[in-house]
């Protein structure tokens, strides 16, 4: 089987230098290889390309006719290789939760480069990340899904400024007027303002008799944390977030909650990079606690 591109490259190089030896050097191959490739091309085309009766490699009339086509083929092959290298370096833009820290994302990006995957990140709230994929503004997104459908899960609990006496915090202990204490609230940050988390908290709120205003959705994690740091309120968050904010974290007594995350991408290959090769590093950014065998 003729290596058509390689043969044409040898043909063009020899024709331009007028020598099989010099042409082979330009093509980056040994002289015998260049001779074999040109001979194979001649057999395929059915005519001689060079007049070998002289010391110089002189084109035959047929060779002169075929040279422009050979040059176009070589040029297209070079352009394709250049485009392939550029495509490998094209960043994979990923929409990620706003809860991911800069350091964790940088470590994820560094690990991805070992697989020749170049990541860039666009933090966005959960309701926007999937839409960014659908509108082709990003190539992939870490999306919020129910924990039972998730690739990564992040357990959630409640955190506050005081060290809790118990190993769990029961929402029923926050009922208004209990022990004469001020009415305490639970703040839900934007990342958890999704039905499979928010609605479950609201159902428990109603079941244990809390006032509607005792569970509130904050405009941002910063504003939620500020409310908690300045009062006896509690923040619904992960243990890692609580540690970062200097808060004391405990699981919720009445319900087990977790964030769930999956990947949405226009191309399966892009999703595969994040789900498989970079599974552990993505999980670290999210604060996930799963086992690799659970994938």
TrEMBL record:
Name the protein family.
Belongs to the LysR transcriptional regulatory family.
| UniProt entry keywords in alphabetical sequence | DNA-binding, Transcription, Transcription regulation
Name of this chain's protein: LysR family transcriptional regulator
Q: Which InterPro entries does the record match to this protein?
A: LysR_HTH_N, WH-like_DNA-bd_sf, WH_DNA-bd_sf
Pfam families (UniProt xref) = HTH_1
PANTHER family, sorted: HTH-TYPE TRANSCRIPTIONAL REGULATOR (PTHR30126), HTH-TYPE TRANSCRIPTIONAL REGULATOR GLTR (PTHR30126:SF40)
Q: Which domain of life is it from?
A: Bacteria
Occurrences of domain HTH lysR-type (ranges) = 9-60
MF terms (GO), sorted A to Z = DNA-binding transcription factor activity; transcription cis-regulatory region binding
UniProt entry tagged with the keyword Transcription: yes
Mind telling me which PROSITE patterns this protein's record contains?
A: HTH_LYSR
